[in-house]
Design goal:
Elements (H helix, E strand, L loop, with lengths): L4 E5 L5 H12 L7 E3 L5 H16 L5 E6 L3 H15 L3 E6 L4 H7 L1 H12 L3 E4 L2 H11 L5 E3 L21 E6 L8 H10 L6 E6 L12 E5 L3 H7 L5 E3 L9 H7 L5 E4 L4 H4 L6 E4 L4 H13 L1 H19 L1 H14 L1
Parallel strand pairs: 1-2, 1-3, 3-4, 4-5, 5-6, 7-8, 7-10, 8-9, 10-11, 11-12
Length: about 325
């Protein structure tokens, strides 16, 4: 049914648009079924939203899939949903935004907008159980909520052969150079760790880092996502000791090729990384735990191999395009 559904989303670069673009590429979703509600200035977005509302009045599709993050995205989709209801059609609200919970929790005014949008929807998509629990606690919405994760397009046919790797053990970090991503904790933990073999740490991201005391830490800065994915198989494991993640695609991409990962017990992350099975989790900000986890994965090759294989299988079974499409189709059928 996805090919008969209209997806309404921003056309700019970002998490939401990348999800819908992946639907277009992988699920035979016609490009004409992807309507942009935002691209550029406030005035342009206003005209786009008005045009979509008028278009709905003459459109024959039965289901409209509204992708939202926060602020303007919520308001635009609320107006669109009113026109969908006027036509007695059905709509799905798909919650994406990394700052969605933060903004909604802070603004009672916006909570009223989002509550109206969610209340009249026929289905709500959350990308994690953490988001589903947030809706239940803050909006008392428990029914018609579907947990459908973002998909991963880069899952390999077989996991990397980590058994053939030789020194140095190569660790990778990918994320913004800000405290909430844990990169400063990672540098401190890495510099204090006691390794019994040669190790290197490569940092990919943007921002400003403090003075680094070891020459086996390399700061690459920001690079194109495609280039990062090309380099990723050269590493032995990934570390992202983030305070929280809305979904955690960085983990999924690494696990999807057979790399174990180190993360934290922050919101949503334990849904992606299974502690002791596909990777290791630590308390955010706990340098001692992070140091011990780094030492454990560096020094135990058999553990890296085992977790890497487990990670690849887990991602294949939960986040492959086929799995996500099946869940979407089941949701459309139910509404």
């Amino acid at each position: 049914m996805i090919e008969d559904t209209i997806h309404i989303c921003t056309s700019s670069n970002g998490g939401m648009s990348s999800v819908v673009n992946s639907y277009v590429r992988l699920f035979a979703l016609p490009k004409k079924n992807y309507w942009s509600s935002h691209n550029g200035s406030f005035i342009k977005s206003l005209f786009k939203t008005f045009f979509i509302c008028i278009r709905i009045l003459f459109d024959n599709h039965e289901i409209y899939h509204l992708h939202i993050s926060h602020k303007g995205s919520v308001i635009r989709k609320l107006f669109i949903s009113i026109f969908v209801r006027l036509r007695k059609k059905k709509y799905v609200v798909h919650l994406h935004g990394g700052r969605f919970k933060e903004v909604i929790s802070r603004s009672k005014f916006e909570m009223k907008f989002i509550y109206n949008l969610l209340l009249h929807s026929n289905a709500i998509v959350c990308i994690t159980k953490d988001m589903k629990n947030f809706l239940a606690e803050n909006f008392h919405i428990k029914k018609k909520v579907f947990v459908i994760s973002n998909l991963c397009e880069t899952i390999t046919d077989i996991p990397l052969d980590l058994s053939s790797r030789t020194e140095p053990i190569r660790i990778v970090y990918c994320g913004a150079f800000v405290p909430d991503k844990g990169v400063f904790d990672l540098i401190e933990a890495f510099e204090s760790a006691q390794f019994d073999q040669s190790v290197s740490l490569d940092l990919f991201g943007s921002g400003t880092l403090p003075r680094i005391g070891k020459n086996n830490i390399t700061v690459h800065g920001w690079i194109e996502h495609s280039e990062y994915l090309r380099l990723l198989p050269n590493y032995d494991f990934l570390v992202l000791p983030s305070k929280y993640e809305t979904f955690g695609l960085v983990y999924v991409e690494a696990m999807g090729i057979g790399l174990p990962v180190i993360g934290t017990f922050g919101p949503a992350i334990p849904e992606i990384v299974k502690n002791g099975e596909t990777g290791l989790l630590v308390e955010f900000g706990n340098i001692k735990q992070l140091t011990a986890s780094l030492e454990q994965l560096v020094c135990d090759k058999d553990l890296r191999i085992k977790m890497g294989k487990n990670a690849w299988k887990d991602v294949r079974d939960r986040f492959s395009p086929q799995i996500v499409l099946k869940k979407l189709e089941e949701m459309y059928e139910k509404i």
